[in-house]
Specification:
Blueprint: E1 6-8, E2 11-12, H1 13-18, E3 25-27, H2 38-54, E4 64-73, E5 79-83, H3 85-103, H4 110-123, E6 124-126, E7 133-138, E8 140-142, H5 147-159, H6 169-187, H7 189-201, E9 203-210, H8 213-222, H9 232-243, H10 247-266, H11 271-285, H12 296-309, H13 313-328, H14 343-352, H15 361-371, H16 377-398, H17 406-418, H18 431-439, H19 443-457, E10 467-470, H20 480-483, H21 486-493, E11 499-502, H22 514-522, H23 528-534, H24 543-568
Parallel strand pairs: 3-5, 3-8, 4-9
Antiparallel strand pairs: 1-9, 2-9, 4-5, 6-7, 10-11
Domain GmrSD restriction endonucleases C-terminal: 428-554
Domain GmrSD restriction endonucleases N-terminal: 17-240
Pfam families: GmrSD_C (PF07510), GmrSD_N (PF03235)
Length: 569
């Protein structure tokens, strides 16, 4: 086993940045774009200013700890920043703004000249023999995905100027820093020099230099600092990127990653989550039925990240994202995949989204990746999804806990790999047990049940924002008929027969003629089930009506479950 070495040595900002004279700083491709906000810039500047006024400056010996920077020396002899890129970029912008301010004065004081000379070798390369500054060669180079913003940073550090029309974080933060310096110069011109002194000599960085990228990533993962930490997905990105040899392959990978990242954000997912879903597919292929879920990084890092490096993983992640795009936006179809237009499939997927945890997602993904290219996929996928819903619903009605189906799902995932009609090893409730439990289901199952009944009589999917409407309101303090049976009323109000999906929340109290008022709202609903309630001729809705509707709804649910079960068999 090889040894791992790291170097940790507390340094001032000046000492730390002078290291870049021989090994420039690099923010690599896999890092996130610069994203510090104006609040973070304010905090950084004002913290150092307050420190200077109270503890630091040329007459005191205080120190201000800014945090750690984790890096390693890459093959090009650059200090590749693994952690701390937000902080180091902000320090460069701060120094450049100070330099611009000092250099903009026509008659420079001795202090201004002194600090100009101090700052120049911290931002630009200088000739080792003559000390001549090369203002076109900055010591911080960014290669993050956004090429345009990389050029903006380079231009700011080279020229000290910004385009006022730009709205990127580099330009906004540089401008903000410059304005803060201007304000402080007006308040106390002499204190500016003390501030610069403290920044260079009393603000402390803890550089942690590793012998390899892998070591640096490991160190990073144990630190909790002020910056924006890398996710597991960022680390996977670095591993895959550095494994690629061809320059064109690397560029293609970066473009695909960026596109994937942008597309996940539009549906409130993340690449990290895609890796998590994909892990269940890989585990199913390995026939891993263990109900203990490994940590994401631990799983993918096994065997030197073999699972990341020996598969066409971006293509598979894109396939997984296809499913979620269709679920999130049912009107979005996948080219050459007719299932994405199938209303029955879209309906059952929409019902499953209301399942109280994520376990339904894993077999759906495994099934899709395993069988999507088969000729009869659309028909088999629908039957599978309906069967999955039947089993999940019955299990949750019986045991409404998060982990009740975990072991069953892991077994099912492994079965799916070898068959497009896998065996479901779920314990079945009797019909009478299901009927009884459906009447007053756990609150987390109600949305699934209401969707099931809704989609039995209409093709249009429910809007994302809809309420569970109590036909007989929860508030019935002034209804004397209900007061006589208060205990029974409280129970019946929460029965399935008293609920319907509705686009808006009605805060009507159950007094005389309340139901006739509600009916006019229900008639305007886009949901057929709710409109049918509005069409009831009677202006009265009481406990007997709930009992009667309970029977009709539970009978319909049972018939749907039996039908979908029979179809699968």
């Amino acid at each position: 086993m090889g040894t791992t070495t790291i170097s940790v040595n507390k340094q001032t900002i000046e000492e730390f940045l002078l290291n870049a004279r021989t090994k420039t700083f690099l923010i690599p491709e896999y890092q996130r774009p610069y994203s510090w906000t104006s609040e973070q810039i304010d905090t950084l500047f004002n913290d150092i200013w307050e420190f200077t006024c109270n503890e630091g400056g040329s007459d005191r010996e205080g120190t201000y700890f800014l945090g750690s920077i984790v890096s390693y020396e890459n093959d090009n002899r650059e200090q590749e920043i693994i952690d701390g890129q937000q902080r180091i970029t902000s320090i460069f912008l701060l120094l450049r703004a100070i330099y611009t301010k000092l250099n903009g004065v026509d008659e420079k004081t001795e202090k201004a000249k002194y600090f100009i000379n101090k700052i120049e070798p911290l931002i630009w390369k200088t000739h080792k023999l003559t000390g001549k500054v090369d203002y076109s060669s900055v010591l911080l180079n960014s290669k993050v995905i956004s090429e345009t913003e990389n050029e903006i940073l380079k231009n700011i550090l080279e020229t000290g100027e910004i385009n006022e029309e730009l709205d990127d974080n580099y330009s906004k933060n540089y401008n903000q820093i410059f304005n803060l310096i201007e304000e402080k110069s007006v308040e106390n011109a002499l204190m500016i020099y003390e501030f610069i002194y403290a920044l260079l000599n009393q603000v402390i960085i803890l550089p942690i230099t590793a012998d390899s990228q892998e070591t640096a990533l490991t160190i990073f993962s144990t630190l909790n600092d002020r910056g924006l930490p890398l996710s597991d997905a960022d680390i996977f990105k670095a591993k895959i990127y550095n494994h690629l040899k061809d320059k064109n392959e690397k560029q293609d990978f970066i473009e695909k990653w960026k596109e994937l990242e942008e597309d996940t954000q539009t549906i409130s997912e993340s690449i990290q989550q895609l890796f998590y879903y994909y892990m269940f597919y890989l585990r199913a292929k390995e026939n891993d039925r263990n109900s203990t879920t490994p940590g994401l990084r631990k799983y993918y890092s096994a065997n030197k990240f073999k699972k990341l490096l020996e598969t066409n993983i971006l293509e598979d992640l894109r396939e997984i994202l296809n499913i979620w795009e269709v679920i999130a936006e049912p009107k979005k179809n996948i080219e050459n995949e007719s299932w994405s237009k199938n209303k029955d499939i879209l309906k059952v997927l929409n019902i499953l989204t209301s399942y109280p945890n994520e376990f339904w997602k894993y077999p759906v993904i495994v099934y899709y990746l395993s069988h999507k290219n088969k000729e009869n996929f659309e028909k088999s996928f629908l039957k599978f999804l309906r069967k999955l819903y039947v089993e999940l619903l019955k299990k949750y009605i019986e045991i409404p806990t998060i982990n009740a189906v975990k072991a069953n799902i892991l077994k099912l995932n492994a079965e799916i790999i070898s068959s497009d009609k896998p065996v479901f090893d779920f314990k079945s409730l009797s019909e009478d047990e299901i009927k009884e439990k459906i009447k007053m289901p756990h609150r987390n199952a109600i949305r699934m049940l209401l969707k099931t009944l809704t989609y039995d009589i209409q093709d249009e999917l429910l809007e994302k924002k809809w309420e569970i409407e109590h036909i007989l309101p929860v508030k019935w303090e002034n209804n004397y008929d209900l007061r006589e049976n208060e205990k029974v009323a409280k129970e019946k109000i929460e029965h399935l027969g008293n609920k319907t999906p509705f686009e808006k929340k009605l805060n009507i109290i159950a007094t005389n003629n309340y139901f006739s008022k509600k009916k006019s709202y229900y008639l305007k609903s886009e949901i057929k089930m709710t409109r049918e309630i509005g069409e009831i001729k009677s202006d009265k809705w009481d406990l007997d009506d709930i009992v009667e509707r309970d029977i009709r709804m539970t009978d319909k649910i049972i018939s749907i479950l039996k039908l979908w079960n029979k179809e699968y068999k």
